[in-house]
Amino acid sequence: MSRYLSITAVALVLGMMVVQQFRITGFRGAHGIPADRAQELTVELKQLEKERADLAAEAEDLEKKLAQAQMGYNQAAEALRTEIAKVRLLAGLEPVRGRGVVVVVVPRQGTGVFTVRDEDLLRIVNELRGAGAEALAINGQRLIATSEIRTSGAHINVNLIPIAPPYRILAIGNPEYMKNTLEIKGGVVETLREWGIDIAVFTRDDLTVPGYQGKTSFEYARTS
Question: pTM above the 0.70 mark?
Fold first, then answer.
């Protein structure tokens, strides 16, 4: 009797195992993947979606920062252009307009041995600078920090360019003050007239002084 019971128990266990195996095989056949694997893939999908959302947010943040950087670059470039224009203006490389005076200097014919010398023009220029002239030119040659007024043979050179009379000196600044400075008693105008040189000072409400056109770069000098 016990033998039959043992056989029955073994058969029952085997039957349950077969049924269980069938269920597992049937589930895989119907769905292709185990339930545990499906759960793992679901978790991975949710993680990937979260990472995608994080990357999208990071990309948007970087685009905003790039736009701000571009705006900052444009502002910096504009500030640099403004500064360059200011420096060129102060260096005398750009033409300028404003109120000022025109000084015309010419030797008086047949009145003596005196002629216009480089030092005479230099004296007039220095008087105008002392009177606040902001821009100066002689016969179209802009005067800057490195300009020279020097006699060379029968001519006077300005910026190494020969010029000839009549000499026209343009100066932008306070016209009345510059005119009064030149024509003060015992000043440069009175002295030159005594030496037989005609000189006249005219005020102008609108005067244009050209920019410097010569060489501005150093050939041998370097920063130390």
Answer: no
